[in-house]
Design goal:
InterPro entries: GOLD_dom, GOLD_dom_sf. It comes from Anisodus tanguticus. This is GOLD domain-containing protein. The longest helix is centred in the first third of the chain and has 40 residues. The protein is of the alpha+beta class and 439 residues long.
């Protein structure tokens, strides 16, 4: 097992000391004031008009306490921003002022255009933050993984999983799914990413086959990815520190969206007053500026978080270098061969090798061949000369494979080969049931 020197246990107390250095400046008092004003304006709109089922759901959501998890709140804000951008599109505005028949209507159209620009800018910042943060977490975890075919296979598995997730979203959109449907799917996918990280730590699910090959991974990291998002785990400290301002912003955006939704359906019954326009514009201005401030803050907190310690600092690289590698001297004019038996198709034959170089840079030939039950040989990988190489091959036939390092072309120089090879059974991503998808 790799050294864990330099790695500290990930505890709430440990994170609390770190978060003490990152206090979040309180939100503007305008957030609470404008949320109340927008809520009151919404109540006025529907007090004399019955609510549709969808509007009732919106009212209930706006009056309920926001979700507890930080990332779920971020997704909730993103959903509401997209819903409002949809409402603000010219084709979705109330017919009563689409023609811009009066100067008053023209002024309102101008205001709505400015609101749309602020929402689009905020949405772009949020999307960028979520995308980069997801990559950052995964790549940081991967710095602890052995830098050979095992890490490569986990990356390939993740890439396949992300392609499948995007295909699910595309299919939903093409079938006419609503923005709400899309975000329900996106949140389920986010929870699936969490489960996959936890599976890395507990050797279950899609990574069950791979994790047993992860000799050299600090146990503290596996514990981290398994427990970090538990309800009372280390990240609960973050939720208690930074959750309240985010909850206030979630409540604010829900109330702004509720007001716009109610207004659009009742617009012809009574146009916006000057005061309502002023409150709406101020609310959007305060919300977008404060929410973008929060995103920038939490991005900096994540980027500097001490529970992501580099592999170099942990002293894991040296331990990894000696992990399960073999060394062999291949004399001039000779070859070195490793035979593997593959029991199941779609298994991976993986390799990682290099030459221990002296004063002169040297290379060695490398190829792979397959032998069928009748003894017929087929070259799988064409012969090439390398100083080092790392790769994997997905088999389409079971049977006998041979990896060959060829030094037969050398007349004088032996080659000291350092290598690792393995046959890894198929890695299959299981389909999740509806119960497994729900948290």
């Amino acid at each position: 097992m790799a050294s864990t020197e330099g790695l500290m246990p990930i505890t709430r107390a440990f994170l609390a000391k770190y978060y003490d250095k990152y206090p979040f400046a309180p939100l503007s008092e305008d957030v609470s004031r404008l949320t109340d004003e927008i809520h009151s304006m919404s109540s006025d709109l529907h007090k004399d008009s019955p609510l549709t089922q969808g509007e009732s759901s919106l009212v209930h959501e706006a009056e309920s306490h926001p979700p507890h998890k930080v990332d779920e709140n971020l997704w909730k804000n993103r959903e509401q921003i997209e819903e409002m951008l949809f409402l603000l599109e010219s084709s979705n505005r109330p017919p009563a002022f689409q023609s811009q028949s009066t100067a008053e209507d023209a002024e309102l159209v101008s205001v709505l255009g400015r609101l749309g620009e602020k929402f689009r800018s905020t949405l772009k910042n949020l999307e960028t933050f979520q995308s980069k943060n997801s990559e950052f977490v995964f790549n940081t975890v991967m710095t602890y993984m052995p830098q050979d075919f095992r890490g490569t296979l986990i990356r390939q598995q993740r890439e396949r999983s992300e392609r499948n997730k995007q295909a699910e979203v595309d299919a939903l959109i093409n079938s006419g799914g609503s923005i709400r449907d899309r975000y329900a799917l996106l949140w389920n996918q986010q929870m699936e990413r969490r489960r996959q990280l936890a599976q890395l730590g507990s050797a279950t699910g899609v990574y069950k086959t791979l994790v047993k090959y992860l000799v050299g991974v600090p146990q503290v990291l596996l514990d981290f990815v398994q427990k970090i998002n538990d309800d009372d785990g280390p990240m609960e400290e973050q939720r208690q520190r930074y959750g309240p301002p985010l909850y206030s912003l979630t409540k604010m955006v829900l109330n702004i969206r509720l007001f716009l939704s109610l207004l659009w359906r009742r617009f012809e019954a009574g146009k916006l007053s000057r005061n309502q326009i002023t409150v709406l514009e101020e609310a959007v201005d305060v919300y977008t500026s404060e929410f973008q401030r929060f995103i920038k803050f939490i991005r900096d907190v994540f980027a500097n978080s001490p529970f992501f310690i580099t592999a170099e600092e942990a002293g894991a690289l040296e331990a990894r270098k000696s992990d399960e590698y073999k060394e062999v001297s291949v004399p001039a004019g000779k070859t070195h061969e490793v035979a593997l038996t593959v029991d199941a198709i779609n298994s991976y034959i993986a390799w990682d090798f290099s030459l221990i170089q002296g004063r002169v840079d040297m290379d060695i030939g490398f190829s792979m061949e397959y032998t069928d039950p009748s003894g017929q040989k087929t070259q799988i990988l064409p012969y090439r000369r390398y100083g080092a190489d790392q790769g994997n091959f997905c088999t389409i036939l079971s049977g006998n494979y041979k990896l060959i390092w060829d030094n037969s072309y050398s007349t004088f120089f032996k080659k000291v080969l350092r290598y690792k090879v393995d046959c890894i059974p198929p890695v299959v991503e299981p389909e999740l049931s509806t119960n497994q998808v729900a948290e």
